[in-house]
Design a protein that fits this description.
This protein is α/β, with parallel strands linked by helices and 139 residues long. It has four helices and four strands, in the order αβαβββαα. The chain has a four-stranded parallel beta sheet with strand order 2-1-3-4, with helices on one face. The longest helix is centred in the C-terminal third of the chain and has 14 residues. The radius of gyration is 18 Å and the shape is elongated.
Amino acid sequence: MRENHSSYLSEMGISTWQLTHPERLLGYQAKKISPVNDCQLLLVMSEKPSQNYSTLLQKIAQSMGLTLSQVGHVFPRDISTIDQQALRWVWFCGCDPTALDHSDISVLISPSLAVINASQAHKRHLWHQIKQSLGGERD
């Protein structure tokens, strides 16, 4: 008799679930998720950025020639599920960087937004990374 696992999950009140290790399924290929709208900068953080940092994020995005609407967020565990083809930037903020699918993506690595916001030295280091990725075209 074949069991319907989805109905068991539904009976337990679980409507959404995520397979932790899809690579363990023989022949399974996860479908890549496209970033929303015209996302150019993917912010990889272990928590969603709060409103407290919207001004900081806006200034950082502007230094890259982007708007806040072009910034997306993903949790570190989900970076491999994102279709990275259209991205220009990936920013690992307060988490360990992981390998990306495309080598032409500019990568930024920094401590958390809270640390950056409180430290001129960290802001300067992030700015140098951005400037280097832009090829020194902005001062």
